Amino acid sequence: xxxxxPRSIDEILAAARGRLxxxxxxxxxxxxxAGALLVDIRPAAQRAAEGExxxxxxxxxxxxxxxxxxxxxxxxxxxxxxxVRVIVFCSEGYTSSLAAASLHDLGLTRAxxxxxxxxxxxxxxxxxxxxxxxxG
Length: 136
Description:
This protein has one domain: Rhodanese-like domain (Oxidized Rhodanese, domain 1, 3-Layer(aba) Sandwich). It has 6 helices and 4 strands, in the order ααβαβαβαβα.
């Protein structure tokens, strides 16, 4: 990349999202019911504070690629091939876009993310556990 102009995070995010067919929370919920893998990449402290989606796979961001690369010795049993439908979510839908684009780089071109992340999922009234920051 020597000689290339540096890109801002906003440019990198826009490029990542340009590669994805992002889902709203209801579409993600429907796809998960049809067999797609919902993958929560938030750190443990954030999940404890915000809540969780029952049945979602917990794969923190720092190990995501190793867990889903079908050629990795550290892959999850669910990482059966490049055609697996992986729907990544984070808190608000920013980090998840970068993560889903990274899965595309591994050949998992059906990977995507949830617009608005966990917070949008919860706001849509979809199944979620209460976190420690939830209002009574």
